[in-house]
Amino acid sequence: MGGAAAFLGTDAARRLPEYPLGVSDACPRMAPAVHGMGQRQCQYCGTTLHTTWADLGLQPLANSYSVDRETARTLAAYPLHARYCHICHLVQVDRAVPAEAIFSDYPYFSSYSWSWLAHCRNYAGAMIQRFDLGSGKRVIEIGSNDGYLLKYFAEAGLSVLGIDPAGNIAEIARNAGIPTETAFFGLDVARDLVARGISADHLSAKNVLAHVPDIRDFVEGVAVLLRDEAVFTVEFPHLLQTIRGLQFDQIYHEHYCYLSLLALQGIFREAGLRIFDVEELTTHGGSLRVYACRSTACHETSSNVDAVLAAEIVAQLDDPAAYRDFERKLRGLKADFLGFIANCHDAGKRVVGYGAAAKANTFLNYCGASPDTLAYIADRSSSKVRRFMPGSGIPIVEIVEIKRTRPDYIAILPWNLRQEIVGELGFVRRWGGRFVTAIPAIEIF
Ligand SMILES: [Zn+2]
Hints:
This protein is α/β, with parallel strands linked by helices and 445 residues long. It is built from 15 helices and 17 strands.
């Protein structure tokens, strides 16, 4: 949910052709990697990558929910392999799928969770106050979707501009009174805006960076678009928390990179940007909000920056060995989950899933799940019900199916929404139903 998902469409792949790389029907489960299967070069610095962080096998695009089981189980699958660069510290997935195939379409997300909108409203208020953003100042957001964040700045009397690549969504924003440029943000777009007399007093990007195919071009564009003392804030899931929490289900083809402050600081520095503050947020299982400015700007550097960097060094995010260890833990997690399922079946217990999220597909396909593993997955979204999970082929059903079938266990797949889901499904307690989460370890409650 939120700007990132909306910007580059976590559901964007849904409308892709099933074999976007022209793979022949004779080999539907294995598509050729576009950039070769041999050595991998760092997408940022070009160094040859030697360290696997997570090899999750062949997986279909995480959002390609299918209308029938056979299609779901035979979708083209691509290597989902994340590696660490020991020179620039950027963690990244192999480019097995061309960006144009993933991001060629942008579904419109018309609803945001209450908690996400509150997060955005609080952000706008905090930025206006901290950086003294008065009327006449311009706030620009990259990945602005339908303007849901910018409207809070506009209501405060500021001039706003959204940048979003999806024409249909930009149109919705413009109709709602939020001026929006239709473009993939990068250096060329920034130069064009500046040439037209448009630059930012405050620039925001929420959960966009992981989706950016060329992070260098993007960050250089940011440096161009900022006025002298302007501030750029960017939010992203923090790699440190992803590793600590074994949140490997955040990995999918559409997420090109997984960011530490360590990696980002180097990338920003090369583009002429300086990180002067950072906040730790609870969104997406633990995120960072980074504050940056031009290297020549006057913003005082907070001790928070060194504190987060120190935590990353203690966790050895600058050491290939720390990354190699992640996969060993994933194998243990997978064995524990499949062991739990086997024990349930042996005892005649029925296990179903809840939450047909993208991350559920990474998890289930890594575990080799099928409808024998989870009989079904219940979901609130009418656009997913009666479809099938890509790869695993598990059917997606309405929540009422839980009441009808009275399962013994409900595996909550979007573990980050656990509290909300347990509240919603409290009725399962009536027949002694229990919940289970598998990340970072099996927990039954
Ligand atoms: Zn690198």
